[in-house]
């Protein structure tokens, strides 16, 4: 909870800070990487920095957190940062790095907002920042103790799923995972940078080894994916990869209630893991699967998806190629749990449609493969 003296200050200045997010974030990252170039080389996603996506996500998350502290002061504040904590833990973010971020972020705020940042305003936003940071630090420490660190895993198999998608099966991993989770993969690029990316585990935990599915990022409005293109060009059976423990909050829920799995493109991968687990355990749950893609030839693991749905006694599949998903044609039970993965505009549309049909907001869960700026948009 915010202190009584900070509540009116944050309420008054929240619109001003929100309106200046882009300038604050841009200046913050320029300062941060000038002082600590190793963070850009070995921790931050250089592609997301080049596209500007990460800027919106970071600044927006702090503003969204401040809004939550104002509007729901008695709510638990660890629910919203859970997804961020899992991503940070998989990257190996340290408590000391939160201090570094604080230094350069607040310097950027002061420079952009100028005289509006009085000592009272600075103290109030400092309170917001450290409330969020302390929540994340504690969560990430717990996750690290539970899961352990990096491991070197050997590639046992490589499969070309589509022209732009490969799957890599990694041999003899330590630990297990919950269907839907991801791992981080760290590679050393030709310029010496050690870049890290997250990839969903695309088969269930009962299978031998861990399988990741990698879509090559190129030819879009974003920079080419450094790690995805490196893996496509170089990763072969017998090679080793540095892989984190499994993390992630979009996981298969317990119980026997109905499920709605909705994905687009490479977003099929975490949901494929859930389906594989459901089929392996002969689950009697009612499962509706909706997937959108450009074409059957671009649909990674298409045959596998068809087989898994066929193996489930109470499953239905809706495929949409080169056209929008229309949930009006899909039977949706009010007590369903919906699990979504895909691009942000797709997720917004699907979520709004589900809420409009009476599905509870807390029963709709999602995962993004880009920086999560849902809350800031």
UniProtKB/TrEMBL annotation:
Gene Ontology terms for molecular function: 2 iron, 2 sulfur cluster binding; FAD binding; heme binding; metal ion binding; nitric oxide dioxygenase NAD(P)H activity; oxygen binding; oxygen carrier activity
Keywords assigned: Heme, Iron, Metal-binding, NAD, Oxygen transport, Transport
Record-given protein name: nitric oxide dioxygenase
Domain FAD-binding FR-type span(s) in chain numbering: 148-253
EC number assigned by the record: 1.14.12.17
GO biological process: cellular response to nitrosative stress; nitric oxide catabolic process
InterPro entries named in the record: FAD-bd_FR_type, FNR_nucleotide-bd, Globin, Globin-like_sf, Globin/Proto, OxRdtase_FAD/NAD-bd, Riboflavin_synthase-like_b-brl
Residue ranges of domain Globin in the record: 1-141
Keyword Chloroplast annotated: no
Superkingdom field: Bacteria
Catalytic reaction list: 2 nitric oxide + NADH + 2 O2 = 2 nitrate + NAD(+) + H(+); 2 nitric oxide + NADPH + 2 O2 = 2 nitrate + NADP(+) + H(+)
Protein family membership: Belongs to the globin family.
């Amino acid at each position: 909870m915010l202190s009584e003296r900070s509540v009116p200050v944050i309420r008054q200045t929240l619109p001003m800070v929100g309106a200046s997010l882009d300038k604050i974030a841009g200046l913050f990252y320029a300062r941060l990487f000038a002082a600590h170039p190793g963070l850009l080389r070995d921790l931050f996603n250089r592609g997301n920095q080049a596209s500007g996506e990460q800027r919106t996500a970071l600044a927006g998350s702090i503003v969204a957190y401040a809004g939550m502290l104002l509007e729901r002061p008695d709510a638990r504040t660890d629910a919203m940062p859970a997804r961020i904590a899992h991503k940070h833990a998989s990257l190996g973010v340290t408590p000391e790095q939160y201090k570094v971020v604080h230094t350069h972020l607040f310097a950027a705020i002061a420079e952009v907002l100028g005289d509006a940042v009085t000592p009272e305003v600075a103290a109030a936003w400092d309170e917001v920042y450290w409330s969020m940071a302390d929540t994340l630090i504690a969560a990430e420490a717990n996750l690290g103790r539970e899961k352990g660190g990096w491991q070197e895993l050997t590639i046992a198999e490589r499969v070309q799923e589509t022209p732009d998608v490969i799957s890599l099966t990694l041999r003899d991993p330590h630990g297990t995972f919950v269907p839907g989770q991801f791992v981080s993969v760290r590679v050393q690029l030709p310029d010496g940078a050690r870049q890290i990316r997250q990839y969903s585990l695309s088969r269930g935990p009962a299978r031998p080894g861990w399988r990741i599915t990698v879509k090559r990022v190129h030819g879009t409005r974003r920079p080419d994916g450094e790690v995805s293109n490196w893996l496509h060009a170089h990763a072969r059976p017998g090679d080793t990869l540095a892989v984190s423990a499994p993390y992630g909050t979009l996981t298969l829920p317990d119980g026997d209630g109905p499920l709605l799995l909705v994905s687009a493109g490479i977003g099929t991968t975490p949901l494929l893991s859930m389906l594989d687990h459901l089929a392996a355990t002969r689950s009697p749950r009612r499962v509706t699967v909706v997937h959108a893609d450009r074409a059957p030839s671009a649909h990674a693991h298409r045959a596998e998806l068809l087989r898994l749905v066929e193996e489930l006694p109470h499953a239905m599949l809706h495929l949409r190629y080169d056209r929008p998903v229309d949930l009006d044609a899909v039977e949706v039970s009010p007590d369903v749990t919906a699990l979504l993965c895909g691009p942000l505009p797709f997720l917004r549309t699907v979520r709004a449609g589900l809420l409009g049909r009476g599905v509870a907001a807390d029963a709709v869960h999602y995962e993004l493969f880009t920086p999560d700026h849902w809350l800031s948009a």
